[in-house]
Amino acid sequence: MVKNGHLTLPRGAVAIALLCGAGVGFALSAPAKAAKVGVAAAVNPDAFSSLSQVPNKQLNIGKSIFYNERIETSAQGLVQVLLVDGSTFTVGPNSNLVIDKFVYDPNKKTGEMVATFSKGSMRFIGGKLSKNAGGVKVNTPDGALAIRGGMFQGNTQRRIYSFLYGHSMTMQGRNGQTQTVYQPGYTLDMSSGRGNVRPTTAEDTNVFMQALSSPNSNTAGTTGGDSGSQNPNSTAQQTGQQADNISNAASQAVGDATFAEIQTEIVKQLVRLEELRNDPVTLPKVIETPVINQPQTPTVVKTAATFDGFASGFVQTGENGSGKPEFLNNGTVVVMLDPKANTVTANVSADHNRTTEGPQIDAIAWLKENVQELRNVPDRYFPDITVGSETKTATAFNLGFLGSGNGAYTNNNIFQALGNPGTTQVSQFTSKTGTIDVGRFRVLWWKFGPYHYSVPISQRNDEYANVPHEGHLASLPGTLLCKDCSYLKFGTWASDVSFGQNAEDPTVEKMGGWWVASKDVVKTVGELPAQGNAFYAGNAVGTFAHRIEGKSWDQGLATGGVTLDWDFAERSGDLQVIDFGNDLGRKSFGGTVSSPVDVVGFSGDITNGGKGSMRGTFVGARPDLAPRAVMGDFNARGGNWRANGVYGARNVPNLPR
């Protein structure tokens, strides 16, 4: 659903709904001087806590967590702590965590938190405090970690700390060395004693997934809260205020969890992709038609289908993607599911345009060779000459992906594919041009100029077939994008493409983004109503990048809302993307989109809130009714930000106009 313009998702293993709506009481259970900082939101029975001079006590859901309280887990333990600012710590087996300091002003949303994570595995999702520089510090055996506006995971045994999302993660090591990770998907590896920033591997992710998920976690049904309180003098007013604080924090955490939930889904898909290489997953028997009256036989229903749609994305620049992200344009996706061959084949096509500095031009030599009246003019008589040159490169990527077996093709909602060089082509057109400007000048009694010339330097077409590329295309549940939109498919894609004339030193372009598609795309204008209006509402998912003045670009997963108000008679409408972004920033933008005659799809320029372009089409034709949904993509930009992504929105009938 959309809450305050943000896509919000079910919390799953975290019992936030239980905390907010089930009347959980928060009685004080610690010495009078201890200050409450949060609550145990999800608990495995093998998790304990202790305060100074108070022995270990088993944790239960609703158990208040206090300043300076130690949280410990056994080999099977798992606990999730929700703090009053909306932050969460997930503490894995054989782990130890202490909240050393917690100061929070809910009105100003400022304060400071210091925690000590001395052993084990943990995941941190930042709340209000993490949005402020210096707001959150986690002491580890390897040094002090500062996280701003995001998420990270840590494992003390392997000495790895993975940055999942946000502005930055900084480690000040025991040796005084400081290192900062800005790019999600990278890990700070301290195993050598010196920090090494490297891409997060599937092995890293598996370590955290195995440690931080447990089928025995209790998120509902454990009662007692803070029974056996050590402080019988607590008042109802204190308890009520604490409940309000936790409720408010939990409500905000649900919104913040948007990124965490989608990130988790992506991570799971990528891990499975890595496993596919050598160890395909064995699933129950696959059939094309459901078996009736045989419940004892587990089945997986697969139906042959082709999905067409849109693909958005960035080409990365700079070291580790720290440069200005460059848009991909006119992106399309085709996904084909074949249950007989048990395969997933997909194709992502997109264009990329880049302008760089061109070669140097000897202006005087060129003028003498190409301008008859200047051929005999001595060089010393030429005035200052303004010379410019540029190289424009237009590249068309046609990327193929292939997945085979049950591990890749689970069912018609869950599928994934790896880069397939056999069906990947790259076409590139390179044009080098220059300009020469000369003002008026005199040689003895002869007058010359002014001159302005466009100088064609060179043009070149290159075609590359069977291009090697490493990447993936993976699906996510369509209902995350649009309520009741099971007929939409969407997901993520990425590719490192290698091509060029020099096989020893090829050009490598790193790119990736999002896709949305459907097998029910409206094909002809005759399937649309000729009159009337329709309103569509849904969500957008993509990437938001932001640059602080004088610094590199940061980017991360982004979400927002989307609406389309369409007039079928005028064949135009108002498309708005609402509050799209993440902790790096949020932007609302949009404009008018329209359809040419005899064309179903629509497009238009972004004219409010930024610049850029938007595209879309209708899905699910219905006789005498507006189509069920719309889907599409967008590229948007401002002075110090870039955003792109895909969207899905369903028809909202009977809306007052």
TrEMBL record:
Instruction: Please name the Pfam families in this protein's record.
Output: FecR
Q: Which UniProt keywords apply?
A: Signal
Could you tell me which InterPro entries the record lists for this protein?
FecR (IPR006860)
Instruction: Describe the location of the FecR protein domain by residue ranges.
Output: 70-155
Residue ranges of the region described as Disordered: 212-243
Biased amino acid composition, Polar residues? 212-221, 228-243
Signal peptide positions are 1-34
Q: What is this protein called?
A: FecR protein domain-containing protein
